[in-house]
Amino acid sequence: MMLDPAQPDAARKGGSRPLRVFLTGATGYIGGRLAPRLLDAGHSVRCLVREPRKLAMRHWFDHPRVEIVQGDVLDAEALAGRMAGCDVGYYLIHSMEASGGEFADRDRSLASSFAEAAARAGLSRVIYLGGLGEMGPDLSEHLRSRREVEQILEAGTVPVTAFRAAMIMGSGSASFEILRYLVERLPVMVTPKWVETKSQPVGIADILHWMVRCLHEPGTIGQTLELGGADVLTYRQLMQEMADALGLGRRIMLTVPVLTPKLSSLWIGLVTPVSDRIARPLAEGLKNPVVVGEHDVQRLMPHEPMTARQAIDRAVERTTNAIIETRWSAAGAIPGDPDWAGGRVFTDSRNITIRAEPDAVFAAVCRVGGGHGWYAADILWRIRGWMDQAMGGPGLRRGRRHPDEVEFGEALDFWRVIGINRPTHLHLLAEMKLPGQAALEFDITPAEEPGVCTLAMTARFRPKGLLGLAYWYSVLPLHNIVFNGMLRGMRSAAESDAPPAAGQHA
């Protein structure tokens, strides 16, 4: 679907007419929420993604004013072609994991390519979301990189609106989930000095409000705007607010001076769903006060933001009711189907007959993971999760975004959805620490008899070295317990959900 190229030039100036928006990061936490709000505001949205299937289940995917294009930001020439005809561009690309400084080099290259492409395509403005924090020797490496990206974009010929946000509080955000799990699981905490650092958390709804509204506020062009919530409080106070919102007692915090950001991130990775690789830059940023220093955003776009407690209450409510639009764990590169060519591949295939329609069977399959568990031998899954977490893997901490719905690219505990074809196929790739590569596939085939199908489950493992062979043979005896139990549990769930057959009564 091509966007209408005949939109008036007045729209390009930031007037009141709908704009043609070029959006990066649509599969991420912010971009995935920004896209539908841009559509609600009347704009057209062209989303640049590496993997279009990651957006296939978004409710706005088939919107008449949405175009999905696949591409690589590092190819400036091709990127400019994909931007052609658009008015403004949102740059929402960030490296989330610490990797010895390599992330900063990559962020620089991506920002430079985007700035060059925006100039070639004739965009009227680039809108960027970075982090709040005063420059200085104590600024964390990741916040410093965000600021450097901002400078690279501003050095281009296209005007930039640069937003700098404090900790973003919303359902599914990494900051919210770290805070929630720490408070839920630790009535007594040994905390580092940064719990006394002042912060100004901002609700995700407020962030999105300003990021959409700026399109029709010409005064925001070329501006750097700091975004924060209605109140300033320390992280200690923020954790107590979270405890109160969750209906828990007051948390006891014992502050010690020896917990470095690295040790803090390891502890966060142990207690919360967020891995230490992602927690590290977040923990490093907590040592920097993140408080709004200038209020130009209120002068240009007056808006009463939520307090920290209001943002927490809203996020808790949406999490409790499983209304989570996007989640931190779905962002990032998604591997393709495992390349099984070359080397020996072990396969374990099983099937079961189920008296239910394919939709009911598929729904039962898609409930695996998270709070629902894995239908059988949950203690074995938990032990495997603890082992994986101890080795630096995700374990079962990530859970799932929604108790029933599954989207391409999202996490189900320590699995990742890499293939989905409703209502016949679900393909999961293992992301736990393994001496090899593992995948799990579910296939549903209708039988000749009406209202009956066959559910086939296939586990594949390509071992790496002798350790991989030893791993496969050590877990093989458990497959009868785990996999057969899963199939029986899925059959029971599907048949209990299935409508009564002809001649029967519910």
Feature tags:
20% strand, disordered C terminus, disordered N terminus, single chain, 35% helix, 14 helices, 506 residues, 7-stranded parallel beta sheet, alpha/beta, 6-stranded antiparallel beta sheet
Major sheet: arrangement of strands: 3-2-1-4-5-6-11
**Radius of gyration over C-alpha positions, nearest whole angstrom:** 24 Å
Class by SSE composition: alpha/beta
Instruction: State the major sheet.
Output: 7 strands, parallel
Hey, roughly how much beta strand do the residues contain? 15-25%
Beta-strand segment tally: 19
Low-confidence stretches: 1-14, 336-342, 500-506
Overall shape: globular
The share of residues in helices is: 25-40%
User: Could you tell me the mean pLDDT?
Assistant: 84
Our measurement of the CA-to-CA distance between the termini, rounded to an integer number of angstroms, reads 45 Å
Care to give the gist of this entry?
This protein is of the alpha/beta class. It has 14 helices and 19 strands.
What does this structure look like?
Helix content is 35%, strand content 20%. By secondary structure, the protein is α/β, with parallel strands linked by helices. Strands 3-2-1-4-5-6-11 form a 7-stranded parallel beta sheet, sandwiched between helices. A 6-stranded antiparallel beta sheet has the order 14-19-18-17-16-15, with helices on one face. A two-stranded parallel sheet has the order 7-10. The longest helix is centred in the C-terminal third of the chain and has 33 residues, at 465-497. The two termini are 45 Å apart.
